[in-house]
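Work Package 4 report. The design task specified in the project plan requires that, given a folded chain encoded as structure tokens, an amino acid be chosen for each position. We show below one input record used in the internal validation round.
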């Protein structure tokens, strides 16, 4: 078994790769993993066990057609994580988002068709649905993305669907809620706030902080992706939610408590442009069809995440000080 993982040096992709190489996915204990990653500011070699006998890292771009045609033959499956993933960066400039997320997905999937890859999972996000005041989205809800990031992911989902319909590519799409856990770049809300608190700084909360997100531990998301890879139906979309709906302010207060800081560290900053108020996924389909359920308790997972950043200062210090501004998904 040989799996190609795009974006496998990023936050979620690397968790998936580490878990697979550690024998965490039944039936894949001997799988060989090729990580294709451009190693942008978000990719980090330290995230994956370089030197592992079943791991190969190829530094390259998903937009590189020739590279893909060389690399893909012989792989049994492709799991496509590679993306520009930070909403704030997409507001500053959407160029890289359209290039990697839209063009990159098209180039990759076309190469998968040409090289007859038997199975593909395209990893997407709940943000493609937009914002929902009440209730939860099912997979058939219309796509109403509000940020350039979400629009680029929505476009990539439509390209993925078209490659299934037109070319018969055996492909499924996952749409997951906000992830948290170790190895997440410190530009994102939870690691930004943890690392600010560890450095004795304030935490910048957008607006009134009442935007609600559904949080999922990266290990639960990765397991869902593996379930979809092995048992998901071609052409289908699977929502993956964590079931932990919290306002940004509630998550911030939990982090303050875990670090032992007081509420005076909260600093409200002007709201993000077009900030979605609430995301909520209906995940009945993946639960009933594939038997999926998240297992990591949010409070416990958050405490472990705080402990990881506390113990791995070397991992986040350098990248953190190359960026600035409030964080969010
Ligand atoms: P990340 O930003 O941490 O990692 C992205 C990885 O892709 C990095 O290693 C980067 O170097 C690589 N990459 C970027 N451009 C590339 C290119 N052109 N060619 C090859 N590699 C490239 O992102 P993440 O949080 O791990 O997200 C992974 C995927 O999951 C994304 O597709 C994202 O849309 C999706 N997703 C993320 C979340 C979340 O909460 N983080 C939630 C749902 C879905």
């Amino acid at each position: 078994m040989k799996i190609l993982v795009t974006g496998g040096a990023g936050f979620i992709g690397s968790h998936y790769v580490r878990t697979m190489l550690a024998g965490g996915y039944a039936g894949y204990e001997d799988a060989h993993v090729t990580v294709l990653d451009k190693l942008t500011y978000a990719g980090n070699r330290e995230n994956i066990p370089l030197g592992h006998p079943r791991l190969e890292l190829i530094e390259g771009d998903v937009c590189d057609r020739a590279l893909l045609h060389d690399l893909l033959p012989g792989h049994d499956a492709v799991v496509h994580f590679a993306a520009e993933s930070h909403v704030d960066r997409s507001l500053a400039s959407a160029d890289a988002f359209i290039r990697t997320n839209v063009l990159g997905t098209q180039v990759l999937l076309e190469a998968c068709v040409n090289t007859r890859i038997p199975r593909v999972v395209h990893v997407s996000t709940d943000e493609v649905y937009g914002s929902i005041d009440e209730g939860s989205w099912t997979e058939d809800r219309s796509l109403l993305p509000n940020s350039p990031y979400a629009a680029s992911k929505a476009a990539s989902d439509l390209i993925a669907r078209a490659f299934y319909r037109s070319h018969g590519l055996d492909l499924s799409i996952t749409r997951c809620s906000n992830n948290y856990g170790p190895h997440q770049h410190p530009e994102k809300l939870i690691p930004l706030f943890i690392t600010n608190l560890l450095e004795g700084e304030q935490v910048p909360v957008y607006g009134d902080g009442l935007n609600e997100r559904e949080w999922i531990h990266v290990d639960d998301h990765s397991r869902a992706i593996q379930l979809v890879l092995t048992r998901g139906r071609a052409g289908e979309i699977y929502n993956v939610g964590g079931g932990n709906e919290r306002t940004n302010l509630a998550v911030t207060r939990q982090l303050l408590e875990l670090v032992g800081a007081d509420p005076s560290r909260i600093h409200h900053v002007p709201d993000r442009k077009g900030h979605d108020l609430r995301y909520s996924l209906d995940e009945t389909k993946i639960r009933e069809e594939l038997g999926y359920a998240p297992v990591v308790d949010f409070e416990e997972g958050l405490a472990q995440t705080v402990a990881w950043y506390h113990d791995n200062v070397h991992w986040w210090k350098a990248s953190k000080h190359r960026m600035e501004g409030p964080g969010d998904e």
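The mean pLDDT is 96. Validation will be extended to a larger panel in the next phase.
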